Design the sequence.
């Protein structure tokens, strides 16, 4: 038997949210044993994994000990709140980190990815400053000008991000950023506020041989840094698409780890501006569950398992709309599913999170139609029908 065609048996998922849940489902279809880890019990991916553990993944000793005991073929991070020292140590011992420990470290810290993109690769980004002491806030903010965005150096889904319109609001924004920061870094990034025309995600698959494969651009809208809806395809001038691909190639050729990457861009006055990058399936890419012949989760697996990736094609224009909670509940229930599922070519995914809080993403609606505008309208309509109750 040709051992090169054998699929590894064991995958360890670090972080067990809704994106991890879909990744586990695809992994199980390929026959993998999956162990899911998170900081709380009954996280979404745990509900479909073979085994699960609750640990503090930011603790180097605990994370390293757990990984060594499980001894997986692959460690797949789904979140940023991890001990990078542990991942580096484990990687040196021969366990594969997806895409690699260096990429995880660079992309989990806004300063490192921004330094790589802007300073080393000379890509167009928003102007920025780092602040590690509150006494430097006003001086460095003034050099950028107001309004500006103040963000934790390490966070996700817009947590701790503030739009600061004047210097009187700086200290409150600083405190909010540090409260919502992940990791032990005491510092923020001040970022030029760009009144962009629109933004989009370029899902990109990097294969083991270094080839980068691009999905159709995905348009999306965010509120306070958190995704609210997305649609595919997004109509863009071909020049802008090629520019985004060129920038993505430069970044991924530097990071050089196989898997899927969610690369976010702004467009202003016919200019592409690099925004963010995630080395894993992207929340805006959940639309690919209905829009593409191979969804982003399967693409991620195929890439780091070194399995064939045939041509990625668009099945039908599609859209997504998140389902948000308006209150705090334990073991929440959902109403309006009957009405939502009456909408043509529409799916509802309830993530199964054991608790809700105001603004937390609890599910998503996916809809397809030959007319993209109708797909977007149907996703919005179905999502409005669903309410979260105790």
Sequence:
């Amino acid at each position: 038997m040709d051992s090169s065609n054998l699929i590894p048996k064991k995958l360890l998922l670090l972080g067990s949210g809704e994106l991890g849940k879909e990744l586990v489902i695809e992994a199980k279809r390929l026959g993998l044993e999956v162990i899911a880890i998170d900081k709380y019990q009954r996280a979404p991916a745990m509900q479909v994994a073979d085994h699960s553990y609750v640990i503090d993944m930011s603790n180097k000793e605990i994370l390293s000990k757990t990984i060594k005991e499980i001894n997986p073929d692959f460690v797949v991070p789904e979140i940023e709140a991890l001990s990078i020292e542990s991942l580096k140590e484990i990687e040196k011992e021969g366990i594969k980190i997806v895409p690699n420990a260096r990429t995880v470290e660079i992309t989990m810290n806004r300063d490192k990815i921004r330094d790589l993109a802007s300073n080393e690769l000379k890509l167009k980004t928003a102007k920025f400053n780092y602040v590690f002491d509150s006494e430097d806030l006003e001086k460095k903010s003034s050099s950028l000008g107001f309004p500006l965005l103040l963000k934790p150096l390490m966070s996700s889904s817009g947590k701790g991000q503030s739009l600061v319109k004047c210097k009187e609001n700086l200290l409150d924004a600083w405190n909010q950023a540090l409260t919502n920061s992940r990791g032990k870094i005491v510092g923020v990034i001040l970022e030029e506020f760009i009144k962009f025309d629109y933004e989009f995600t370029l899902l990109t698959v990097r294969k083991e041989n270094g080839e980068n494969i691009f999905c159709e651009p995905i348009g999306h809208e965010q509120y306070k840094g958190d995704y609210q809806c997305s649609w595919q395809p997004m109509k863009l001038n071909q020049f802008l698409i090629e520019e985004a691909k060129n920038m993505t190639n430069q970044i991924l050729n530097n990071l050089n780890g196989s898997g899927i990457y969610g690369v976010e861009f702004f467009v202003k006055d016919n200019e592409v501006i690099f925004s963010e990058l995630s080395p894993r399936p992207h929340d805006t890419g959940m639309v690919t569950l209905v829009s593409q012949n191979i969804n982003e989760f399967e693409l991620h697996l195929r890439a780091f398992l070194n399995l064939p990736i045939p041509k990625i094609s668009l099945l039908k224009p599609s859209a997504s709309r998140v389902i948000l909670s308006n209150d705090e509940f334990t073991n929440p229930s959902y109403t309006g599913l009957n009405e939502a599922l009456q909408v043509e070519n529409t799916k509802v995914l309830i993530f199964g999170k054991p608790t809700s809080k105001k603004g937390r993403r609890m599910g998503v609606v996916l809809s397809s139609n030959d007319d993209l505008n109708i797909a977007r309208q149907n996703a919005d309509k179905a999502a409005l029908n669903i309410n979260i109750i105790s």
Observations:
- The chain has three domains: 3-97, 127-192, 198-389.
- The longest helix spans residues 238-255.
- The chain is about 30% helix and 30% strand.
- Residues 122 and 358 are 39 Å apart (CA to CA).
